[in-house]
Amino acid sequence: MDSRQLRYFRQIVAHGSMSSAARSLGVAQPSLSQLVRSLETTLGTELLVRSARGISPTEAGERLESYAVRIERLLDDARTDVANIGSSPAGRVAFGMPPSICMALSIPMAETLRLEQPEIQFCVTEAMSGHLREWVMNGEIDMAILYDNTGLGDCTSAFLLTEELWFYSAADDWPFDTPPGEPVDLRDVITTFLVLPSKRHGLRKFIDRVAQAESRKPLVTLEMDSLPQIKSLVARGSGYTIISPAAVIDLVEDGKLLGSPIRGPRLSRKIYLVRSAVNRITAACRATEECCREVVDDLVTRGIWQANLA
């Protein structure tokens, strides 16, 4: 079994007709029939079912066709990689980020790539994790940052860091006896008037899950699926929130927000860099991934992102 056989078999399945596939490939129809018989003999199973409506794959045929698609993609990637050795990475890279991470990461990544890799067209998409998961799996974006690396099909993921979540309030509305910056107990945090995303949002699901494990329920008075709106409401003293320090660094530096880490338990979650299995992995994608890691490392080292690196 070789790559040519797999490519021909994939075309047969795609066309649903031996004659149509033969015309598309520019080969004789008997040659394709012989190729299928040879594959079936080699694998010891029937691959195609013939009917009046044409040809359809058996379960084994569907499995082989899936492998054929991936193998052809890998061969294309190998040709491109070898041909591009020594050339500068170039082309479009679609990169998805959740809002809380986009706030901290998108601008320094864009500036770094513009200076160091000017031929790369860096395209950032900000969306909730559920949308990003769907888009990276179907190839609408090349890579994404996600909080969960399960159920991603053939996409590959790499652990980036573990992020810590903090409690935040307006500068003139600190609700605890302990001063800002000192750890606060989760049991006290979830009794404050919280402004959080709705329950379809990954951050809210995480907070609810941790609270439930402690037999508690957060006192959520306002739901906003908009990070800027949550930040604005908290800064105006209209509630409190739980969020990544990287997402509110601007308001903290301006003195509009005060924060503290949360304990009992600590609220931390893992973050992964996920690459699409549908799109070709280009030199531009690899350079963008490397840039992402370098910028994340810098943000953590400088204390802008409260996290532990992989």
From TrEMBL:
Domain HTH lysR-type: 1-58
Superkingdom as given in the UniProt entry: Bacteria
A biological process from GO: regulation of DNA-templated transcription initiation
UniProt keyword list: Activator, DNA-binding, Transcription, Transcription regulation
UniProt GO molecular function: DNA binding; DNA-binding transcription factor activity
SUPFAM superfamilies named in the record: Periplasmic binding protein-like II, Winged helix' DNA-binding domain
Similarity comment: family membership: Belongs to the LysR transcriptional regulatory family.
UniProt-recorded name of the protein: Cyn operon transcriptional activator
Name of encoding gene: cynR_8
